[in-house]
């Protein structure tokens, strides 16, 4: 898959009166190079309608587009990939359905899950929740930056840190080894979405400059 740095997920409860498309377009304009449609409340038909709009918008900017949970919606909307959790369809079965070209991302919360996802051909993994988050209802306790460090030290496929990541604590995640970060509330709840994205990118870039 094409490399990415900043991953933004929809969270319509934080969009405060703005349309989902408007919010996500701001995120892409701000430099989010991958976005995910995550919608736990709408009907599948509604999720599909949203997916088609996000597919069209992301294609205009050259950003990757991922659908959470719904493989059929991802395929029907022409998304670049799907994101699956530990309780979703197993990766090997999902791969049979979507083929080799589609991106499959897998959530992981412990190093054994990260190893398994890598072994089974995940294109990237989510690593979290690093910090406490209110954006997910059935969330487990924070895995802390020590899990980020474990993954950075051992796993070779791309990983994205997620969960409670804000501009004020992202340095801890970057210091633990993350090159890519993912956020919902800090970005889509911001009154200056482009500025918030730029703030994250500046911090990620500063790390890359130091490593060169
Ligand atoms: C990039 C990324 N990482 C983790 C998740 C969480 O996925 P999952 O565990 O399936 O939980 P839900 O998002 O479905 O509630 C994600 N969506 N994206
Ligand atoms: C959807 C999701 N998955 C997580 C995981 O750890 O797998 S944490 C999370 C919520 C992230 O939202 P926020 O940036 O607002 O904390
Ligand atoms: Mg899921």
UniProtKB/TrEMBL annotation:
SUPFAM superfamilies linked: Thiamin phosphate synthase (SSF51391)
Q: Name one GO molecular function term.
A: thiamine-phosphate diphosphorylase activity
The residue ranges crossing the membrane are none
Annotated binding of 2-[(2R,5Z)-2-carboxy-4-methylthiazol-5(2H)-ylidene]ethyl phosphate, by residue: 133-135, 164, 184-185
Pathway the protein contributes to: Cofactor biosynthesis; thiamine diphosphate biosynthesis; thiamine phosphate from 4-amino-2-methyl-5-diphosphomethylpyrimidine and 4-methyl-5-(2-phosphoethyl)-thiazole: step 1/1
Stated EC number for the protein is 2.5.1.3
Q: Which InterPro entries match?
A: Aldolase_TIM, ThiamineP_synth_sf, ThiamineP_synth_TenI, TMP_synthase
Origin superkingdom:
Bacteria
Which Pfam family is one of those matched by this entry? TMP-TENI
Positions of the Thiamine phosphate synthase/TenI domain: 6-187
Q: Which reaction does it catalyse?
A: 2-[(2R,5Z)-2-carboxy-4-methylthiazol-5(2H)-ylidene]ethyl phosphate + 4-amino-2-methyl-5-(diphosphooxymethyl)pyrimidine + 2 H(+) = thiamine phosphate + CO2 + diphosphate; 2-(2-carboxy-4-methylthiazol-5-yl)ethyl phosphate + 4-amino-2-methyl-5-(diphosphooxymethyl)pyrimidine + 2 H(+) = thiamine phosphate + CO2 + diphosphate; 4-methyl-5-(2-phosphooxyethyl)-thiazole + 4-amino-2-methyl-5-(diphosphooxymethyl)pyrimidine + H(+) = thiamine phosphate + diphosphate
Task performed by this protein: Condenses 4-methyl-5-(beta-hydroxyethyl)thiazole monophosphate (THZ-P) and 2-methyl-4-amino-5-hydroxymethyl pyrimidine pyrophosphate (HMP-PP) to form thiamine monophosphate (TMP).
Q: What is this protein's record name?
A: Thiamine-phosphate synthase
Organism field: Thalassorhabdus alkalitolerans
Instruction: Write the gene name.
Output: thiE
